[in-house]
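WARN no homologs supplied; continuing
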Amino acid sequence: MKNIVILISGSGSNMAAIVQAAQREDWPRRLGARVSAVISNRDDAPGLAFAQTQGIATAVVDHKAFSNHANPREAFDAALMAEIDGHQPALVVLAGFMRILTSGFVAHYQDRLINIHPSLLPAFAGLNTHQRAIDAGCQFAGATVHRVTAELDHGPILAQAVVPVLPDDTAQSLAARVLSQEHLIYPRVIRELL
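OK structure emitted
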């Protein structure tokens, strides 16, 4: 069985979309794959409760617990890798995981680590993507699924979804439209990779 480990920091709506697609499409039987664990860097991440109701193992590796280490990011990533590796992942999926990962972490999961970003990369890497797209006068925005590399939001693109930017859009209304597309393309890319 190919194990999928999903990392979240918040509501986990993309994680839920992946879990629901896996159930609906019977990934264990059809692909020999399952979501084996959901891990968060925040113990109050609402997505953890959803994963637990689905019978999926959950864990928290709180990044704040490593603030006193000589190198907090490396210490956090080492603890996170130990938790992930316990599930022997075929694929590690970042789904709203709001931590920048070290190059050592990325190298450890090379070709097994993917992310979804709420812009049409290479445009608008980083945060506040929807407002930045509106401010730039873009007519289109969207989401990108990509392989994770050491450079933030710059890995090889696996899929994109495009939505129009409407004249009366706010960052919130555009984000909602983009998110609905994220929920469609992320499970599709994972299915194709498996």
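The domain at 2-193 is CATH 3.40.50.170 (Rossmann fold).
OK
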